[in-house]
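Dear support,

Our group has been running a series of protein-ligand predictions, and this particular one with farnesyl diphosphate is the one our PI (initials K.S.) wants archived with full inputs and outputs. We had some confusion internally about which version of the output was final, so please treat the block below as the authoritative record. The input we submitted was:
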Amino acid sequence: MPPSSTTLSIPSPSDVPRHVAVIMDGNGRWATQRYLPRTAGHARGVQAVRRLVEACGTRGVQYLTLFAFSSENWRRPADEVSMLMRLFIQTLEKQIDRLEEQGVRLRVVGDLDAFEPHLQHLILDAQERTSHNTALHLTIAANYGGRWDILQAMRQALVAHPELADKPHALSEAMLLPYLTMAFAPEPDLFIRTGGEQRISNFLIWQLAYTELYFTDEYWPDFNEKQLDAAFEWYRSRERRFGRTSAQLTKPS
Ligand code: FPP
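Confirmed final output from the archive:
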């Protein structure tokens, strides 16, 4: 299936979102409420990730994209950042066999140069080992920022189309899309953010233009199948118009 831009082609309505994007917020608060170090919340957050991957697989979601570490998260205390890096490494090492068996294709998107060489190597290896899988496309956004993504795509498009320097008005969405890091996937149908905040926080800012946005107060470590089903039920109740009117949606165009 070719990736689509919802501004160019409208996906057929489906009960189960084809692509779900998640900001997993509230790990720190979950831990603090229990008088635990914030890092304990991240460790529990990994369990919630495993539950979500299983649940999305059994419900027929095709693409699941998780915001694990933003470009801005480097500003956190050094011990929390290094614990998160260790957690990514351990999780990759422990889970890769299972992901491969489950038919999950893993990708990591973001500016990976900033990560230590061992982690970069694990990521490349995991991507390679799962590259034949098609059951669920699991993408982890790490050292990712939506503005960074648009800029890096723009730079690549300018290199590929040097004629744009003299004809900037010739730059089109179609020229940029192949260079966005999520070019392989359709745009998200459903965005979920846990932890009570209602913002996008520089996640997939280009791709979320027409996505249904779902916010829940639940902290990420508590997010489970029941909450996922509640989000899907809410999604089913939405009327996706992509700029058209309700009447247009019921009539063939
Ligand atoms: C936001 O909670 C969460 C993060 C910055 C890290 C997310 C990481 C995980 C869930 C674990 C690792 C994931 C993978 C894919 C291996 P927060 O710390 O901002 O919580 P707070 O808002 O309560 O402080």
